[in-house]
Amino acid sequence: MSHYIHHYWQVYFEYVNLMKDLSYKQIPLGLISNFYQYISPEVRERMEDEAFGQELTTACPLPEEIQPFFDQHKQQIKRIAYRPANGKVLLHFEHLRFTEQNYTRFHPNQTVVLARWKKADYFGLPVISKPELAGEVNKEAHAEYIEKANALLKPYAHHPVFGNVFFREKLRKDIVQFIDVIDQIEMLFQMQPIAAVIVGTTEDVYSRVLALQTVKRQLTSICLQHGALMGDEAFLPIFTTCHGVFGKYEKDWYVDKGCQPEQVEITGHPRFDLVKERTPLQQDLIFRKLNFSPAKKTVLVATQPFSEAFYGDVLKTIAKRKDIQLIMKPHPWEIARNRLNEYVSIERAGNHVKLIKKEIDLYDLLPYVDIVITLTSTVGLEAMLFEKSVLIGKMTEGRRYPYYESLGSYHMENPVELAEKAIRILSDEQEMKLAKQQGAQFIKQHYPHARSIDVLLSLLKTKTGVDFQR
């Protein structure tokens, strides 16, 4: 682990222990906090220094101690009797990333969708709108719990994290939201008979409260893996009763972090079922939109934030080749914040280079490109599911992310050499065949389920005894 991650878990453990008695309606507020969001950039930078640990009073946990610590705190949640007749499965829309085909597999009489918007139904499934759950704001509870939190933090004015103004202001704001969301989810369980919950992450407050409410009610809850496993903070700890992952790599990773094998199931993610189920738009239509020729080789580069130097070198190297068509597909974060200047500049290289934001769906592009290049993006996995040749960049600084390391020589550190290798593969059929074979081997090891929705429905039936299929 990096120094930062060592210190992150040290402070996170200390925070959960500090807040352990601050519960609202049996839900510990300290477990709801998405802790890495409480660390300011300045404090985070200091946490990268090995000496930061000397300012802490808690010992650094071993990797295998991480999940058991949180499981122990979940076990302290007081259980209540809740066994409604004809219980439904609740699908939390935010971050679930289900497709229409995924939703239509669930029976409308046995399913409910929780969403932030108001609709009578969503692909035939009844919807509960979050605003409809909001009752009268409990200002007294807000004030009471902020005061309790302030009292707990009072002795920590000089603590390197807890004494930070950013940390304290974030916690105070969050306590208000925690109480409101707990009240709303309590109302939800009173309104609807719920037997199981499925969420797409537990990073947001609603998903985490839903998960902790299923612990309180002794129900089944499943969190699906929302992206390629890159780093601890967005993937640990597990709050649901079960975690659905892409493949063996992730299951082994979680077991190494102290999870029990039965806490982690290899399910894949239903959104990737579209690779086999969806008919893409026709190639001539896509290439007309791009003003590309189907006779030429095409490269897709899926970019990511904070890696401008790497992607810049890859894109410039390939863009020099007028005989190769280049598609730049920025990350949604880059699009939302208009961090596209570098790509706009490269696009001026000629008509053989195109910057695509949201005009064309990724799954309409992947069937017709020859090579895909990215760093840590899930697009690398998706491209291999489409049986495409893939080259993955290796991070040269910061933490090591081993997910794509089994690609061997197709996992490269130098961006110019990676781009040159892509150019060589495009001009050599045998090289292209070998690259595709490496991708197929990766999928065999890392993503065994072609129809994840079937696996998920079967898992739900095993856990609850109920068949929720339409």
UniProtKB/TrEMBL annotation:
Biological processes per GO annotation: polysaccharide biosynthetic process; polysaccharide transport
Family annotation (InterPro entries): Capsule_polysaccharide_synth (IPR007833), TagF_C (IPR043148)
Keywords assigned by UniProt, alphabetized: Capsid protein, Virion
SUPFAM superfamilies from the UniProt entry: UDP-Glycosyltransferase/glycogen phosphorylase
Superkingdom classification of source: Bacteria
Protein name: Spore coat protein
